[in-house]
Amino acid sequence: xxxxxxxxxxxxxxxxxxxxxxxxxxxxxxxxxxxxxxxxxxxxxxxxxxxxxxxxxxxxxxxxxxxxxxxxxxxxxxxxxxxxxxxxxxxxxxxxxxxxxxxxxxxxxxxxxxxxxxxxxxxxxxxxxxxxxxxxxxxxxxxxxxxxxxxxxxxxxxxxxxxxxxxxxxxxxxxxxxxxxxxxxxxxxxxxxxxxxxxxxxxxxxxxxxxxxxxxxxxxxxxxxxxxxxxxxxxxxxxxxxxxxxxxxxxxxxxxxxxxxxxxxxxxxxxxxxxxxxxxxxxxxxxxxxxxxxxxxxxxxxxxx
Length: 305
Fold this sequence. Notes:
Layout: H1 3-15, H2 23-30, H3 34-47, E1 52-55, E2 60-63, H4 79-95, H5 101-117, H6 123-126, H7 141-153, E3 155-162, E4 168-181, E5 184-191, E6 196-201, E7 205-214, H8 220-227, E8 240-246, H9 251-255, E9 264-268, E10 271-278, H10 282-289, E11 295-302
Antiparallel strand pairs: 1-2, 3-4, 3-7, 4-5, 5-6, 8-10, 8-11, 9-10
Helix pairs in contact: 1-3, 2-3, 4-5
């Protein structure tokens, strides 16, 4: 830990304690000697002008409670925090395939400067992080930016949409939520043409334009009822129930996964039985096929109204 990390940790320690802290406790928290801890105290008080004083009665250090709230100047992060932030930014950029490049580029540059000042090369750890994607569909970056802009400013969108059967439609929609689900981006929105909530895969949008009209905002409760009651990304009230029986050796893995919030499960010896409500079976069938001959569809039936 370098001296700047110690100063940051000391500052956080002081603002989070109401009572004076003995030098011994400060040294333990900073994982250093008492002499090094005292140097950090001197730097914080004498060079950064922190309202820090020693309480003779309690034999400890604290910030002056009557002084204005003190903050370190600029952006102060420890080396570990900078590592974490750089990793997050790198991962976001990789997942987004450059969609967020312009938005996070400035932050990345500042983080890299701070790391360089600490003598840390970004390539030394970024090169060790890999993100492997599957089934990702490309998105036009301009479309993504337009959708985000409309979502933030609560404006309607006019889109041209090509569904999975190749049918093209033109719609005016009010965006509600942007979802990153299984490698792809989806937009939950109120469709003014269908008069209902729908989900649109961003990669299937072939044209988009933000409108001047304010978006129709649907309540959180109504959106949850529509989008979270059925299986996977296919929303709507569940119409069917599927009963699946899993066999060893995949039972423990399957039992550790929540397939659906309203699932029903049961162990039958070494086998694992799960009942799942669904509206559209496409995603469910795809997920079942992953387990090959270790799963059997015992029953499917229409769900009682």
